[in-house]
Amino acid sequence: MAKLIHLTVEGKEGRKSIEFELRALFCGGYSGRDQEEVRKHIEELRGIGVPAPERTPVAYPVSTYLLTTDDEIEVQNEETSGEVEYVVLVGEDKLYVTVGSDHTDRELEKISVPKAKQMYSKVIPGTVWPYDEVKDHWDELVIRSYVVKGGERKLYQARPLEALIDVETLMNVVGECGPGWMLFSGTIPTVDGDLVYAGEFEMEMYDPVLDTNIGHRYKVHLLTGRRESGVS
Length: 232
Fold this sequence. Notes:
Fumarylacetoacetate hydrolase, domain 2, mainly beta, ten-stranded mixed beta sheet, 17 strands, five-stranded mixed beta sheet, 232 residues
């Protein structure tokens, strides 16, 4: 089911608005170039009861309605967390990239990772970059995330994109991509090696060559009937 998303392209020629018709959405997993780093992430998840995958990397198809640019999402329980990732948007004649969060239910992951991926929103900012303008220094781009819990903001994840499989490899993992497809790359390990269930999640993609960044922050609300009830 297609979904129309209003986005702003920020590039060397300035800013322009586009309408992206989302036709397919995929979430990558276990996508590190360094298999030792992949093992660390698998061990993070194994520590909370998530079984190891049969192969890596993988790509999980999820419903297009899960994609959002909102600054609030709702969850069923406290055991959920964001994951910073790079995101590829396949346009009619070019690729775009941005940062995103594959918000995931950690309890459901113990039963089924595909079902957990389907459970919650996949969040991106309303801003994208033309891939051609960052392709030549792709590995130098940095993705970061921060969590806010108990009123304290702290760095949660941070790595240059050389830590993850590149765009072309990701597209090959997914398959024959067509216009309107959006691909989340898969995430990087946490700074402390621990998963945090926080009330706010902040993500950023920084380009040290062009000195530009894309960021977004969203709040996580429990479905308790009270909008003020965030995960804290």
